[in-house]
Amino acid sequence: MEEEKKEKSKPSCNIKIFVLCHSLLQLTQLLHSAYFKSCITTIERRFGFSSMSMGTVSSLHEMGNMVLVVFVSYIGSRVNRPRFIGLGGLLMSCAAATLALPHFLSKPYQYHFMSAAGGSLDTCVPRENSSAPEVCRQGGGGDPSEARTQWLTLAAAQVLFGIGSVPIQPFGISYIDDFAEPGNSALYIAILFSISVFGPAFGYLLGSLMLRIYVDVDKIGLDSPLDLTPSDPRWVGAWWMGLLVSSGCLALASIPYFFFPRVKVPAQAKAPKTESDPLKDETSSETSLVDFLKMFPRLLLRMLLRPVFLLLILSQCCFSSSIAGLATFLSKVLEHQYGTTAAYGSLLIGAINLPMAAVGLLLGGVVMKRVRPPVRTLLWLCLVPLSLSILLCVPLFFMGCSTQRVAGVNTGYSDTQDQWTNRTLSFCNSNCSCLNNVFNPVCGEDNTEYISPCHAGCTNVTIDTLNPHRVQTYTMCSCVTGMGIGRALPGSCTKSCPHLVLPAILLIAFAGFIASLSHNPIYMMVLRTVFQEEKSFAIGVQFLLIRMLAWLPAPAVFGLAIDYSCVWWKHACGNKQGACGYYDNNILRNRYFGLQVGYKCLGLVLLALAGWRVQHTPGLSIEKEPGVPV
């Protein structure tokens, strides 16, 4: 009797250990992805990339994942799923380390600065006294060929990471759903997502820590004096260090999978099927890979012709697009809207926004476990919170700072009548040898920002007595109007509404908490509107479409919208366009949050259509498989 009890409890114990291990692997996977997203603005600044190009890099891992998802659908029931998950984790570890290569392959980061030892590229030097021609900077994104090489390296590493992540969720979720006790599948999946969702939080917190360290700390030392601070718009943090940390974590989290068996005996056998399923017959173990590839379009079409399944997947694509834009560029929006540093923006996201989403996921799973509602009720559990989350986003359109006054960009110089010249040179600095590719913003005492001390017409500087490498004040600035001699301070002018950053992030976090309550209901509806034998294939189709229609294009779409909000671009060598220097903050805010709300509204419409279809399909419940395709 005792042995029988032990035998019954053994599978339960094993599946719980598997849930824990898989939660940790997904946590580290999401930690890496979130950390990389927290560094996007920093990498843009380091190599001179646009937001669209970095958005494309961010989404390229979905391409590697998407290409192989067909083979995952085929081999899902034929291989040792835990072992394939472990191999995928090790491949992701290698890809994470590869992402850090551009730092080691490039020259040290260089920026325009004032040196007390003599000479300056950034102060006003009369043209007749300037003999040095404009040259390309080495490092800092000045060399287009170097930037192209680094972009290709990042892109290749992202594709490799996507290939490694192919088996993680489909194999893991199907393994849990197959061997969990009856009624516990929803709870285990909720626990899985609730633990793993802390991965992005830890990733952003890691980003907040690493971005406070100077990028070339390995080359100049931790104690070397710098003339930059993290609040300087030219600051570049040690983005590469966190990638090495995530690489090590992924390798460690992958090891336990090599010790799980291929097959377990479930605590209670699944109910026998009274009729055979055509999908199971067509994808039997005797089917060859070539035959499977031939029949795949037909099987995919059959799955997509089920109205409820298709509508649910398309709605998930819309919500995932919104999440992709939020995860990829929220830190950048906080930085430009409210003047936060990259490190502080990552800290806010990791400490406030993502934990709220985790609580929402866990609470949604508990509700599913306690209530076990029919699919009709599940639709309402999705529609109501998602509608509330949209309403909570409306105030964000009005919570932001306008772009600061920048001479020659969005306001004229003091010596001209033109208020929108879109020219960086004027009479007050026409005799200065200002370089086209310089970006060293200063804030004049007239509360106008200038692209560099040279563009402000500054000829003298006061050096900080405590740090001879740092400029304290620029003086004799001919373009700056004010009392006495024109003065300017290094760095951008203070934003007009930095006090709004905490209310904004709290509102975004609460909207995310409300929306995350719908995650588990949607996911369980997808699983319960297909036959038991179709689950692995349905999950594969689900992830294929979500990656193809959401996570692959959405970051590039959001990046393009952000790029179109740019009003002044930095210049690299040969007058080539670099990263954006200044955005129109009102346009940036409206386009970014407008895309967020637009995707969510479209998802709500698709969910409502799915609800209308469910009303005509009696007998659907979370614990009962459909008798007919829906």
TrEMBL record:
<feature type="transmembrane region" description="Helical">
    <location>
        <begin position="342"/>
        <end position="366"/>
    </location>
</feature>
<feature type="transmembrane region" description="Helical">
    <location>
        <begin position="151"/>
        <end position="175"/>
    </location>
</feature>
<comment type="similarity">
    <text>Belongs to the organo anion transporter (TC 2.A.60) family.</text>
</comment>
<keyword id="KW-0472">Membrane</keyword>
<dbReference type="InterPro" id="IPR036058">
    <property type="entry name" value="Kazal_dom_sf"/>
</dbReference>
<keyword id="KW-1003">Cell membrane</keyword>
<dbReference type="Pfam" id="PF07648">
    <property type="entry name" value="Kazal_2"/>
</dbReference>
<keyword id="KW-1133">Transmembrane helix</keyword>
<feature type="transmembrane region" description="Helical">
    <location>
        <begin position="235"/>
        <end position="260"/>
    </location>
</feature>
<dbReference type="GO" id="GO:0015347">
    <property type="term" value="F:sodium-independent organic anion transmembrane transporter activity"/>
</dbReference>
<dbReference type="InterPro" id="IPR004156">
    <property type="entry name" value="OATP"/>
</dbReference>
<feature type="transmembrane region" description="Helical">
    <location>
        <begin position="592"/>
        <end position="612"/>
    </location>
</feature>
<keyword id="KW-1015">Disulfide bond</keyword>
<dbReference type="GO" id="GO:0006811">
    <property type="term" value="P:monoatomic ion transport"/>
</dbReference>
<keyword id="KW-0813">Transport</keyword>
<dbReference type="GO" id="GO:0015132">
    <property type="term" value="F:prostaglandin transmembrane transporter activity"/>
</dbReference>
<feature type="transmembrane region" description="Helical">
    <location>
        <begin position="378"/>
        <end position="398"/>
    </location>
</feature>
<keyword id="KW-0406">Ion transport</keyword>
<feature type="transmembrane region" description="Helical">
    <location>
        <begin position="500"/>
        <end position="517"/>
    </location>
</feature>
<keyword id="KW-0812">Transmembrane</keyword>
<dbReference type="InterPro" id="IPR002350">
    <property type="entry name" value="Kazal_dom"/>
</dbReference>
<feature type="domain" description="Kazal-like">
    <location>
        <begin position="422"/>
        <end position="481"/>
    </location>
</feature>
<feature type="domain" description="Major facilitator superfamily (MFS) profile">
    <location>
        <begin position="18"/>
        <end position="615"/>
    </location>
</feature>
<feature type="transmembrane region" description="Helical">
    <location>
        <begin position="537"/>
        <end position="562"/>
    </location>
</feature>
<feature type="transmembrane region" description="Helical">
    <location>
        <begin position="187"/>
        <end position="215"/>
    </location>
</feature>
<feature type="transmembrane region" description="Helical">
    <location>
        <begin position="308"/>
        <end position="330"/>
    </location>
</feature>
<dbReference type="GO" id="GO:0016323">
    <property type="term" value="C:basolateral plasma membrane"/>
</dbReference>
<dbReference type="GO" id="GO:0043252">
    <property type="term" value="P:sodium-independent organic anion transport"/>
</dbReference>
<dbReference type="Pfam" id="PF03137">
    <property type="entry name" value="OATP"/>
</dbReference>
<dbReference type="InterPro" id="IPR020846">
    <property type="entry name" value="MFS_dom"/>
</dbReference>
<feature type="transmembrane region" description="Helical">
    <location>
        <begin position="84"/>
        <end position="105"/>
    </location>
</feature>
<dbReference type="InterPro" id="IPR036259">
    <property type="entry name" value="MFS_trans_sf"/>
</dbReference>
<protein>
    <recommendedName>
        <fullName>Solute carrier organic anion transporter family member</fullName>
    </recommendedName>
</protein>
